[in-house]
Amino acid sequence: MAGLTEKTCAPCRGGVPPLAEGEANKLLAQTPGWELREQGRQIERTFRFKNFREALGFVDRVGGLAEEEGHHPDIAFGWGYAKISLHTHKIKGLHENDFILAAKINQLAPAAA
Known about the structure:
There is one protein chain. The protein is an alpha+beta fold. It has a domain at 35-113: 2-Layer Sandwich (Gyrase A, domain 2). Helices cover 35% and strands 19% of the residues. It contains 3 helices and 4 strands, in the order H-E-E-H-E-E-H. It has helices at 21-28, 52-69, 96-108, and strands spanning 35-37, 42-48, 74-78, 81-86. Helix 2 crosses helix 3. The termini are far apart.
């Protein structure tokens, strides 16, 4: 079975149910630092940085990854932090794509984040 970082996000056209909480928890175990939010319909993680420039650079790398994967997170950032939220809009909940992108975002983060 391929790890999440070895997969690519597949287009979600809707019509599929969001992941059940048990399925989401299994995938969450493969994405350290991320937490379930919104009654299990979203995952979120806050990354910490030394300054604004580091946070901005990280957000820029996440944006590039999101474009490559065709799956786009919500991002809030400022001096020393970047908060990233993921869910699949078309199904109003979580899909495997959210966890794939979360795992790949973890790889972009500095070790101390």
